[in-house]
Design brief:
InterPro entries: Calcineurin-like_PHP, Metallo-depent_PP-like. The protein is α/β, with parallel strands linked by helices. The chain is built from 4 helices and 16 strands. It has one domain: Purple Acid Phosphatase, chain A, domain 2. The protein has a 6-stranded mixed beta sheet with strand order 8-9-12-13-15-14, covered by helices on one side. A 5-stranded mixed beta sheet has the order 7-3-2-1-16, with helices on one face.
């Protein structure tokens, strides 16, 4: 079993310290909209792999390049790393951590100008690319294990989202669930505001809102 600590959207100052040590996670995943230094503090406290996707309030994470000396560059000038130090950006990718396969799709449906926001049409294209990668890309004959976690910032349309523009869910996630059949879809973006947000079940997938902190176990290859 893999103990997964999932965080998103709201900083929980009580987390970093003895409480976090007692949790003993094997993996930390962030579903977006958290300060980089908060994610780094959590990661350094437990010394386990960290995987994240960006939220709509996060900076652009793919705009910089890395020099031969290992420096991050923006427009040719050194700049801070566009991600939490030591964390793996899974946005649009499939990564492996703690023995789990994690597919990531960050951001939310566009409601204003800014980074990490896309139209529903753009999300359909992004979801198809992610599905292609998860299935082996140019080597479809290569049998790949199933995806354990689909890590997103926003939830699927009509499944834990809200009707106001900034919090409408992603329609393309429905097709992605059909194609990838992950055990879990973990998302943030929707703040509970003290109200319980129950898990939802779609086929083999459990959809869970992880704002601000959730700890659970998942079996490898579940």
């Amino acid at each position: 079993m893999v103990r997964v600590l999932a965080i998103a959207d709201e900083v929980d100052h009580s987390l970093v310290g003895e409480r976090l040590t007692r949790m003993r996670p094997d993996l930390v995943v962030s579903a977006g909209d958290l300060p980089w230094d908060y994610i780094e503090s959590v990661a350094s406290a437990v010394d386990v792999p960290v995987v994240f996707v960006p939220g709509n309030h996060d900076p652009e994470v793919s705009s910089s390049k890395v020099s031969r000396a290992g420096l991050h560059l923006d427009a040719g000038m050194p700049c801070p790393a566009p991600r939490p130090v030591g964390a793996v950006n899974a946005d649009g990718l499939v990564v492996e951590a703690a023995g789990l396969r994690i597919a990531g799709l960050g951001g939310c449906v566009r409601y204003r100008q800014g980074p990490n926001m896309y139209s529903q049409r753009e999300y359909h294209l992004r979801a198809r690319r992610l599905s292609w990668r998860a299935r082996g890309g140019w080597s479809p004959a290569r049998r790949l294990p199933s995806v354990d976690i689909l890590l997103t910032h926003a939830p699927p349309l009509g499944l834990g989202d809200e009707e106001d523009g900034p919090h409408v869910g992603i329609a393309a996630l429905h097709g992605l669930l059909d194609r990838l059949r992950p055990t879990w879809l973990l998302h943030g973006h929707i703040h509970p505001h003290g109200q319980p947000r129950p898990d939802r079940q779609v086929g083999v997938t459990t959809i869970r809102n992880v704002v601000p902190v959730r700890l659970f176990e998942i079996e490898r290859g579940e």
